[in-house]
Each structure stands twice: as C-alpha cells, then as structure tokens.
C-alpha cells in the first residue's frame, strides 16, 4: 500500500518509519529542505531510541523515502496522513491549525486518485469537518474521505507504543474508508490490537480526553504527595496502595516535579479552549492546568528550602533537564521553572543532561553545562535530580557526596531509597515523604 506522510515531526517521522516497517511504501514529506536533506543522509532531527536504525533499514529496503515535494508524495497514495504541528496559538491557547489546513489544501490539489486523508496531528473537535470542507471546495469531484486517527505514542517509547498500541482509534463512518484504514494497520489488526471505529468528532475528542485524564492522574498524585509530606505518609506506598486497584491502575501515579512536554500542557489548554467555545467548562481540567503550573514553580522553592531558605551564591546542580528521559525535548520541562526560581533567588545553576544540553542551552541563559553528572556536582551546595534518565538512576552517590560542598540531595523523582542516600552521606529531600 502507498502512504504519504505530511510532516516529519515527532509523530510523522515515527509513524512513517513504522508504517514502512509494516511493509507499506511510505513517502515522508516536509517543507523544511534541510530536514529532508539530513533525513536522506540518515541524520534524525530528534532523539528517539531505535528510530535511526528503523529509518535506515526501511530506506535501504526501498520502502521509505523523503521529499519536499508534496505533489510527488501524494501522487498515487491511498492513505495520506497529515502529521504537521498544532502549536498553541500565541495569546489565546487555541491550537494553531494553519499548518493542518494548509496541508489539507495542498493535498486536495495534488490528489491523483481515490484516497483517505487522515489527520494524525492532535486537532480540536470539528477540525476534520473543516478539512473536509476544504477538500470539497478544492476538489468537489474527488473520491476521498477525511478520517481522524489520533496518535497515542509517548516520546522515548514511541516505536514500541506505535507497534504495540493499547488501541487504535479511527474516526470515520464510511465503510470503504474504514477498509483502507484496516489495511493501513493490518499487522496490528491481525495481531488483535483493538481497532476502535468511532465518529470523526468522537475520535478527535478521545485524544484530548486521554491526555487530559493522564495529566489529571499525575496532578492528583502530586497533590497527594504534598499532603503526604505534611502528615508523614509515603506517596510511593499510597500510589501502590491505590494502583493495585484495577479500577485505578498503577500507571501515571508517579509523583514528581509536574508534567511537561509537547503534549499535556498544550493539549489540556486546547481542550479548555474548546470547552469554553462551547460554553461547557471543564473545571477539573482547569484545576489540573493551574495546579501543575504552580507545582513546577514550587519545586524551585523546595530546593531553596533544602538550602535553608537562602540560595544566594549557592551552586546548584540540576541533573536531567528534558521533560522526561530518552528524549532531547525541552518543551515545558519542569527544569525550566526550577532554573528560573533558583536564579531569581541568586543561585548559580549548573546543568547536566544525557541528550538535552544542546536544546537546553538557549533556553537556560547563565546556566553552566557539564558533560557528566559528577562534574556538575563538584563543589555544589545541592544536587537536584529532576529527570530520571537511566544513567541518573545508577549514580554512585558516595562519589557524588565526596566532591560536593554541602551534602544536599533533592530527589524530585523518588529514584533513590532514603537509606541508600543517607548511607552515602547525603541529606535527602524527596517528594511526598516526611522530610
Ligand atoms: C503523552 C501521552 O502519554 C501519549 O499517550 C500521547 O500520545 C502524547 O502525550 C501525545 O499527545 O503526543 P509524552 O508527552 O511523550 O506522551 O510523555 P509522557 O510519558 O506521557 O509524560 C508526560 C509528562 O508527565 C512528563 O513530564 C513525565 O515526567 C510526567 N509524568 C508521567 C509524571 O510526572 N508522572 C507519571 O506517573 C507519568
């Protein structure tokens, strides 16, 4: 089957590579010439485990190619995916759909035969209707269908998530188009992955509801963590205690410095805007957004408190800067708020991250970056574990303690057992435990 993927961002590139690995003939299209040139040379624009190998083997197999020419990509394609960005619109938080609609128009103009046009980008309810309107306006005679097929993959585990999805949601009520989508996902479908066919608006909303629910779960446990610290309970045990209840489930109950990334912050805001437009407020999601923003700032205050309430002139090393491990993505990372709070309080901030330093550098002026966590910790008054990269889960704490000026260790991900930290000679400040 011939597939065109418009947009080689996170979702587009991973999906395109995975579809080609299913045996489809995939052309990835992007307007950015330098990105396409790099991809042709096997250079990935993002850090995602396994992606370079997956791309290389499918390019070699002749199933995956890259072009800036949308017309060439769309010609003969039976399924055309729109996977362009939908950033928050400056000023009002609405999703900016100009790239989606622009792509829809160009696709409509380039159609050569029957095709499904599939929005994979996260788009507000009703976007499919507008894409359909554009399609009919440009090509009233075209045999084409507009489908919503939201993506649920996580950065850092994107290939695994794509190939072993909990479910695939497809919003279309036309049987012929549904058949094309079954063919697109044939290997997963044969493997009994649930393929859920819904109305188009339902599929669009399902994506936002899923992300908002996950953000709510995290925010809930973060607030419980605050209470644990006050009443002398342990949030990890509370998480386990509630997570073993099948109705609740254990995932997304890890207390931490607040959620970040390119999805939860943007999607919760866009969902609130939709709710506002339809005069149906989502009060729980409103609270989640407010509480999470406040939490990111509160984490900076937590470090200052660990320093005895005064951070002036203190050297603080932040370990792990990206919003989560296995990505170089710094978008809305909690580390950004923490750095800001510490610098405002007069601290000298240092940073270490296995993959994110290049992305972090322009966003964190006046932070000194180091190539190793131990180098960053040398002479520091406090070390703060912000993001739980594997290398940071296996720190030699005694070695760390030996070179620090003060033995203050703030573990915002509760990676290390308190006894181990103390044995190494460090004073632990963690999340959701009596301090
Ligand atoms: C999220 C969703 O998990 C994906 O299903 C979805 O497809 C994606 O957004 C998207 O809309 O594209 P992602 O943002 O890559 O994926 O990362 P997550 O693993 O969900 O983590 C998001 C944030 O929540 C991170 O900052 C992470 O540290 C935080 N988190 C996650 C916690 O603080 N505690 C947890 O228990 C889980």
UniProtKB/TrEMBL annotation:
One of its GO terms (biological process) is UDP-glucuronate biosynthetic process. Pathway: Nucleotide-sugar biosynthesis; UDP-alpha-D-glucuronate biosynthesis; UDP-alpha-D-glucuronate from UDP-alpha-D-glucose: step 1/1. Its EC number is 1.1.1.22. It catalyses: UDP-alpha-D-glucose + 2 NAD(+) + H2O = UDP-alpha-D-glucuronate + 2 NADH + 3 H(+). It holds the Pfam family UDPG_MGDP_dh_C. PROSITE patterns: PROKAR_LIPOPROTEIN (PS51257). Keywords: NAD, Oxidoreductase. Residues 317-418 form the UDP-glucose/GDP-mannose dehydrogenase C-terminal domain. InterPro entries: 6-PGluconate_DH-like_C_sf, NAD(P)-bd_dom_sf, UDP-Glc/GDP-Man, UDP-Glc/GDP-Man_DH_C, UDP-Glc/GDP-Man_DH_C_sf, UDP-Glc/GDP-Man_DH_dimer, UDP-Glc/GDP-Man_DH_N, UDPglc_DH_bac. The keyword Kinase does not apply. NAD(+) binds at residues 30, 35, 86, 122, 155, 266, 331. It is an enzyme of class 1 (oxidoreductase). GO terms for molecular function: NAD binding; UDP-glucose 6-dehydrogenase activity. Substrate binds at residues 152-155, 207, 252-256, 260, 324. The active site is at residue 263. Belongs to the UDP-glucose/GDP-mannose dehydrogenase family. PANTHER family: UDP-GLUCOSE 6-DEHYDROGENASE TUAD. This is UDP-glucose 6-dehydrogenase.
